[in-house]
Amino acid sequence: MKEQKAWNKLSRKAWVVLICLLVCVASMVLQNLLLTSGGRVRMEKITTQSEIGYTLSGTLFIPKSASTENPLPAVVMTHGSWRSREVMSSYSMELARRGYVVFSFDQYGHGESGNTPLTGYDMRHAFQFVCTLPYVDTNRIAATGHSSAGRSINRAFTMNAEAGGPQFAAIIPVDFEPDYKDEDGNWFNKFGNVDYGVVASRFDDWFFSVKGEDGTWLNAPKDYIYTENARSFLNFGGDPAELEGEPEYGKVYTREIDGKPTAHVVYQSNEIHPWSVLSPESCGYVIDFLNMVMPAENPLPSSNQNGMLKEIISLIGMVAMIVFTVELALLLVRREPIFQELLAEETAVPATAPADIAGKLWFWGGMLICGLFAYVSLFPVMRPIYNHPPEELPFVLPQGQTLCIGVWSLVCGLFSAFIMFLSYRLYGKKHGMNLRDNGVVMSPGKWGRTILLALTVVFAAMLLLFAADYFCGANFGFWVVTFKTFRAEKVFWMIFALPLFLCYYIPSSISVNCFNYNLVGKKEWVNLLLNAIGGVLILLCFEALQYGTFVATGIPFWSKTSLERQIGSWLLGVVVILFVTPFIARKLYKETKNPYLGGIVNALLVTIMSVAFCAQYY
What angle do CA 120, 126, 171 make, to 5 degrees? Predict the structure, then answer.
């Protein structure tokens, strides 16, 4: 009977692994169908080298109707800081299905492009590359992108103007302001007769506010249209006081410049800065603007979008890939002799809740103090790293964001381990807690097998990810939590980033599984949910304070410094990750009584996600 139950469990896990594989395949295939508009658009990965010797990597979206006899308008597109071209996939597919050739590329220092912070040269390089394509109408090439992409666009425009020759026909950055003044502080029309649109988020963390010398915001982003900067832009570089009437969002201002009717417009989207990469509203404004000033052959209404559907399908693929990773580990533990030593004799259950006040204080108090420590250590830990010159970052991990979050994880993880040590020494040991029975103390043989198993299943998950990219041009993720492929070079950086995250996720797994008292009777999932919420509660309060204040007053709670403006968007993904990882750790622990397996798997996944997706500099 016992053997039959074991066989049934093995069969069920094999089926779950197979189903997850099929879901991942379905996700990548469906994403490809959407990205290619059902085969009407061709996708090509491109790697090219600039005239100054730097490698630029991107993806071309080419409508099937494009040819030398039928050259199409084109859009050069890029992402914002710390990200890569995958975040702009909704924009790429929507423009391509309307008849634009789209080149979405990784900026220098990001993704798979060369490691240098030469902002602007990458956009100029991408523009020059698109000009060489025989199926592109070089008189109709537009530029768009999110956030700091606007800085690259503006600098590329200046370089194009200085060099002479082809120039952008239209520009529409999302969440970035155009230039208004020359070096002497005089208003001027920098962009001549180029059609220029701006998509401005109502709650933009970074742009559309005039800032005082101490960083204080002098206006809310929602009121950007009334600033001198915006009024001058709508007045085509003229004196803002001379703009006729009250400025309006969405109103197209036109003027004939050098014999050409030229349009300027500012759209306002009702969202925060990081959401714009996924927003149907912001993408719709880009579509509307390009349809107006540089129409393509298939002018679908901007309300007709599949970008969010594509992202949801990608999210389903990510969930399936994570479940595949966990279930494959448990399948191998039951099936492969080398890993069978890791299988627990019986399913682990949470320890009984302490009945006395002292035990409850250690549990709830420990959770509270760890959360408060995460909050108070956030800026002191990250600020020195963030303010460090990017070119002076260590060559073993030249990623400022990964270092900021990684070192913060290290500090928080060590503090959590210290609190658990005190809890055990001062309470748990006296009340029967046995570290060997609950897996905290483990034999050397189990350590080796644990590490090998974690590496094996995460490697298998990465094979799925690379297959999705290679065969379908897809990835797995949603918004700020995304798995993407990476160059071999980044494996070296992952090796040095991994210890930082191990020092957080191993203590986290031990906390959830070995110091996890059953506080709500037999409802273990409620108990686990409480632990997961406890791990992110302080960060949720941080985000609520930041963005709640933003909505209420028009200005975020933390806003004066560069790090303060950016930290809110950074933590959005961290909140999701910290909430999900305890469930992964618990699932693996229940059948192995091994808290390290879940901790290592979580650390590997987070390390790969972080290093693959962040900017890097030499």
Answer: 70
